Amino acid sequence: MKIVILSQHLYATKRLIEAGVAKGHEMQIIDHTKCDLIIEKKARTHLSRKGN
Question: Looking at the domain covering 2-49, what would its CATH class be?
Fold first, then answer.
């Protein structure tokens, strides 16, 4: 399963990533302070990275 965590790169987040990988999941961290999350009426989510 692909799992994305919206968080800053903290120790607790790192531990979540390690646990997910250990269970065979594809894990990714996205810094929520550098993103815009737009949820529309249709079941779609757009994630736009700011900056970088």
Answer: alpha beta
